[in-house]
Every structure is written in structure tokens, then in C-alpha cells.
């Protein structure tokens, strides 16, 4: 198989309200980079406050991508993210700049780094097929899925560890839904990127306090009005209507809860989401953790690590 030249990509990951945007701007200036949003909600036009979207006047002249590319009634799938982000990485790299992906949607970031290959069926994934393999593996062990892949696509099985059940099942699903070999579509290892992933973190009490403050700031900036507009357009029936910061208002607009209860629910959901984000990055991805909020003196170490990686 022909060797693939790996493209350098910097990822800045972490939970909400941890300081990803500020660091990304600083590093983009220093490293001649362009920023690709890895956030599943910032793709939507007209939803600026609740998504904590960086506005044009705040971008400091740094090109930003995958922001404001969808209407609120349009779905944005992980398959589309991987496709668009991959094309952007190639384009940015070809222009001699560093692609910097910034976001907290862990599944999107993991899928990109793993080189997941998506067929046409990915817009409607065969969840029943996936779950059947997960259920079977829970009883018989993960090797049962890998052995099945080895029979159907030996080259793909050689490139994927038997213990990587998610990726094994994904390869099986690809063969099942497309009738094609997973290994023929791309390098089955999926590893075409030389990625360095920084994951920002903070002590939980501090992070939760920052989240609560951010929600208060969003409300003061007009979050209720933005959510009301979304509600009037169709609310929970829309793909964009499921986002945190929006759907919590809908019971209030329907007269089912108070305004204060809605705000409290946004804070609660945001804190829970941050906890899930941290768990995902800890368990699903290989990252370098750094706590700049409480240890700003560690900022210099980032430059040292990046210099070594880029050399």
C-alpha cells in the first residue's frame, strides 16, 4: 500500500467554558494557523449567543471555518464534519498554514482522528446492526466481531486491533451497508493525520462556576430572545432545537415552567455536558491535559511541546 504523507493538525479540545477560544486565537497567530470549528452547534446560522460562537469582529483576522454553514432546519452529521474538515485540512496545509481544530464535540474529533470512513448510509446509520454486534461482543468477547471482519475484509482486520470494538464494528457496518471492502476505500488504519491534541481542563468547582457565570452572561446578552426565535421557527422539531441553551427554554415558552427554572436547567445541563466531555476525552482519545486556568505558568510548556512536534 502506498505510504500516505501525514498532515500536521493541532487540536484544542476540552469542556465548555474552559478557555479554548482564547488559546486557539493566540496559537493561530503564533503558528500561522487557520481555525476549524469542531463544535456541532456553531454550524448553525442565527444562533450566536447560546452556541458561544466567536463573532467576526472577535476573530482577530484569523480565518475560521465550519461556522454559520447550516440553516436551523438542516442536519449536520459526523460524516459531514469529517468530510468537510478533511478537505479543509488539505487546503489549509497546501497553503502553508497549520490547521487548528477547536471544539468540544468529542465524537466529531475522535472520528476525524481515527480516519473513520463514511459511506452514503452514514447519514442514516444502521444502529440496529451496530447494536447487534455490541450485544454479541458483550456475551462472546470483542474477538467475535474482529473474527467476522477478518472473514469479510482480511486487510481491514489486519489494520484494526481486535480490542478496538467500535472501529471493528464500524468497518463491519461499512461492508454491510455498502457492499464494498472497508480496506479498499482508504488506508484501514485511518491514520492520515499527524495530530497533536491539547485538552484544557480545570478543577471541577472552578469549571462549574465558570459555566454558571457564562450562562448568566448569555442570558444578559439576549439568550432568551434567541431561543424564543428558534422556538417560533419550530423549536424541538428542528435539528438545531436540541442544543443546550435552547431546548431548556421551550417548556417556559409553553407555560410549563418558570423563567428561573429554565435558566437553572441550562446551567445544570451545561455542567453535566462538561462532565461528559471530560469523560469522553479521558477514555476515548489520547490527549495532553493542561490546566491553564489554575496554572497559567504552564503556558510556556505548550510552546515547547508544539515546537518539538512541528520540528
Share of helix, binned: 40-55%
| Overall pLDDT metric | 90
Largest sheet: 6 strands, parallel
The arrangement of helices and strands along the chain is EHEEHEHHHHHHEHHHHEH
CATH topology of the domain at 118-190: Histone, subunit A
Q: How large, in whole angstroms, is the Cα Rg?
A: 21 Å
Low-confidence stretches: none
Structural class: alpha/beta
What amount of the residues lies in strands? 5-15%
Which of globular, elongated, flat, extended, rod-shaped describes the shape?
globular
How many helices in DSSP terms? 13
Distance between the termini: 27 Å
Q: Mind telling me the CATH class of the domain at 118-190?
A: Mainly Alpha
Question: What is the annotated CATH architecture of the domain at 118-190?
Answer: Orthogonal Bundle
Number of beta-strand segments: 6
Give the spatial strand order of the biggest sheet. 3-2-4-1-5-6
Family: Belongs to the IPP transferase family.
Keywords: ATP-binding, Magnesium, Nucleotide-binding, Transferase, tRNA processing
Binding site for substrate: 16-21
GO molecular function: ATP binding; tRNA dimethylallyltransferase activity
Any overview of this molecule?
With 311 residues, this protein is of the alpha/beta class. Helix content is 50%, strand content 10%. Among the domains are: 118-190, Histone, subunit A (Orthogonal Bundle), CATH 1.10.20.140; 205-277, Helix Hairpins (Orthogonal Bundle), CATH 1.10.287.890. The protein is built from 13 helices and six strands. It has a six-stranded parallel beta sheet with strand order 3-2-4-1-5-6, with helices on both faces. Helix 2 (78-94) packs across helix 3, helix 5 (143-152) runs parallel beside helix 7 (165-178) and helix 9 (204-221) packs across helix 12 (259-284). The longest helix has 26 residues, at 259-284. The radius of gyration is 21 Å and the shape is globular. The model has no long low-confidence stretch (mean pLDDT 90). Belongs to the IPP transferase family. Residues 39-42 are annotated as: Interaction with substrate tRNA.
Amino acid at each position: 500500500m502506498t505510504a500516505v504523507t501525514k498532515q500536521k493538525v493541532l487540536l484544542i479540545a476540552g469542556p465548555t467554558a474552559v478557555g479554548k477560544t482564547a488559546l486557539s486565537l493566540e496559537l493561530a497567530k503564533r503558528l500561522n494557523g487557520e481555525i476549524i470549528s469542531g463544535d456541532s452547534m456553531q454550524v448553525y446560522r442565527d444562533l450566536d449567543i447560546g452556541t458561544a460562537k466567536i463573532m467576526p469582529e472577535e476573530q482577530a483576522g484569523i480565518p475560521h471555518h465550519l461556522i454559520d454553514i447550516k440553516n436551523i432546519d438542516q442536519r449536520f452529521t459526523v460524516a459531514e464534519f469529517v468530510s468537510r474538515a478533511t478537505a479543509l485540512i488539505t487546503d489549509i496545509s497546501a497553503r502553508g498554514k497549520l490547521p487548528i481544530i477547536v471544539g468540544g464535540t468529542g465524537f466529531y474529533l475522535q472520528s476525524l482522528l481515527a480516519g473513520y470512513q463514511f459511506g452514503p448510509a452514514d447519514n442514516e446509520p444502521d444502529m440496529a446492526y451496530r447494536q447487534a454486534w455490541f450485544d454479541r461482543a458483550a456475551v462472546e468477547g470483542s474477538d467475535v466481531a474482529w473474527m467476522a471482519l477478518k472473514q469479510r475484509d482480511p486487510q481491514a482486520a489486519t489494520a484494526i486491533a481486535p480490542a478496538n470494538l467500535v472501529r471493528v464494528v464500524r468497518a463491519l457496518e461499512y461492508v454491510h451497508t455498502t457492499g464494498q471492502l472497508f480496506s479498499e476505500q482508504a488506508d484501514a488504519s485511518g491514520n492520515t493525520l499527524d495530530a497533536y491534541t491539547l485538552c484544557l481542563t480545570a478543577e471541577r468547582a472552578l469549571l462549574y462556576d465558570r459555566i454558571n457565570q457564562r450562562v448568566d452572561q448569555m442570558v444578559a446578552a439576549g439568550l432568551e430572545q434567541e431561543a424564543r426565535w428558534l422556538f417560533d421557527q419550530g423549536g424541538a422539531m428542528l435539528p438545531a432545537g436540541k442544543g443546550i441553551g435552547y431546548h431548556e427554554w421551550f417548556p417556559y415558552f409553553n407555560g410549563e415552567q418558570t423563567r428561573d427554572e429554565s435558566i437553572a436547567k441550562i446551567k445544570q445541563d451545561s455542567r453535566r455536558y462538561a462532565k461528559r466531555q471530560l469523560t469522553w476525552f479521558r477514555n476515548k482519545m489520547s490527549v495532553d491535559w493542561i490546566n491553564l486556568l489554575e496554572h497559567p505558568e504552564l503556558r510556556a510548556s505548550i510552546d515547547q511541546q508544539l515546537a518539538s512536534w512541528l520540528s
